[in-house]
């Protein structure tokens, strides 16, 4: 039994075998062979190795004439590794004496070597790690016959263990079979965290080297509240956690029940609207069941994962039409594509950037590639005829940028009219406020934008200069940093003053303790992962706007995040005691 502690990002407890993915989605099966199969297995390994040698030699030959010798020498060292007698001896030994399958033996031996190299903090050795990863992948591909895991069809419940999940992996996942996520990298607002919350699946991220220390099929206990991940638990631990799985399900049921009876308002009668954040149109039904009054953020990037880098206008339109049908007249907020940095950069063929979070992502890419943008805009304007629809532009950092996008949208309207297509001219165009420059100069947007939605995930990242996906700085990612709170308060105040709708759709809104503070800043619309809706509804119905305002005043007089966190936690615990619904 081995215990690891990571960053808890989606509550709940799960117990299931691990499905370990590498970046190409290979499953490393844990399988033993019979004694009489040993020889054939060694031959199988030899064949895969020889094929790898031939492949690498071919690549080396091919590049030698066009690029510098150093590049060819990388492949020279790959060949040396593939012929290294010690390494080969170890792999053969694992097949012979432990009766491991060839792929399992390869993954065990390579994992050990990679780990040893990683422990040496040196640039030369980190390069070697990449070499070993590459060769391991090549061998596994040869052994497994090029077959990457078909994640869309799993035959049993699993906990996905990966270094970091790529958006395209999660987009194709058979979500009914995944009961937990555990990743080496990531922080509280990383892609895995958001997805896990949306799906109501427990998740722990920032686990360091878990994906290398675990083998497929190992039993994993995952606690998304404490951040604990236990590999191959003993009987007692397993039983204890099986009880907790039950407790968590009961808590969810009780909270959903309390939320369904709660007023859609604060204790003193101020109307509060709760929307859902979704990534897939299929999530609409779950969101409505959890009490959503509409969709406040549809991260439409996932359409690109489903249909490829260039979905057609019809593929966009059909997705929005399906969502509208399920929403039955409730609001649908469609965010235009937010590519780049952590989202689909490789998938859509963007060139590598040294600082992708500060690079050509999101609206910047939309303005650079107007065809990609306008194809989606056409579908959004047409979907505007099917139900209340809003268009939301991400990552806006200046009014010029907003106006340039609006110009393109107006051009699309003229085209659609010329073509005689049915579309809505009145789809409100609003913006995410997630770049500090927009939050600071919010006044410059109030005449142009139809609404604001504050993206705290990026706003915190950019204000505090803390990468939201980097587990090494996760402790510095603080929603309650006074600078962040001032920006948020300023945006809400400006919106309210100009009678513009404003919501918060970043992860901050999904936690009861922060939501009370946002209420105190004057926020009335919240957009969160569907799983968080019942708790949010319950807590916000138990506090008065006046109480929340005085809490906000107290918080704004504080200088330290720790102090603010303690006060908010104590307030949330008073309003929604942990033992009330079980924990
Ligand atoms: C945000 O940045 O807070 C947000 C909601 O957008 P995303 O998490 O998709 O970047
Ligand atoms: Mg964002």
Describe what you observe in this structure.
The protein is α/β, with parallel strands linked by helices. The chain has three domains: 2-27 and 149-238, Phosphohistidine domain (Glucose Oxidase, domain 1, 3-Layer(bba) Sandwich), CATH 3.50.30.10; 35-143, Enzyme I, Chain A, domain 2, CATH 1.10.274; 266-576, TIM Barrel. Helices cover 49% and strands 13% of the residues. It has 22 helices and 16 strands. The strands form two sheets. The chain has an eight-stranded mixed sheet. Strands 9-10-11-12-13-14-15-16 form an eight-stranded parallel barrel, surrounded by six helices. Helix 14 (370-383) crosses helix 15 (399-418), helix 19 packs across helix 20 (533-541) and helix 19 (512-520) packs across helix 22. The longest helix is centred in the N-terminal third of the chain and has 27 residues, at 38-64. It is globular and about 75 Å long. The protein binds phosphoenolpyruvate and magnesium ion. Magnesium ion is lined by residues 434, 455, 457-458.
Class by helix and strand content?
alpha/beta
Each distinct ligand: phosphoenolpyruvate, magnesium ion
Distance between the termini: 25 Å
Oligomer: single chain
Mean pLDDT: 89
- The share of residues in extended strands comes to 5-15%
CATH superfamily of the largest domain: Phosphoenolpyruvate-binding domains
The spatial strand order of the largest sheet comes to 1-8-7-3-4-5-6-2
Note the overall shape: globular
What Rg, in angstroms, do the CA atoms define?
Answer: 26 Å
Number of DSSP E strands: 16
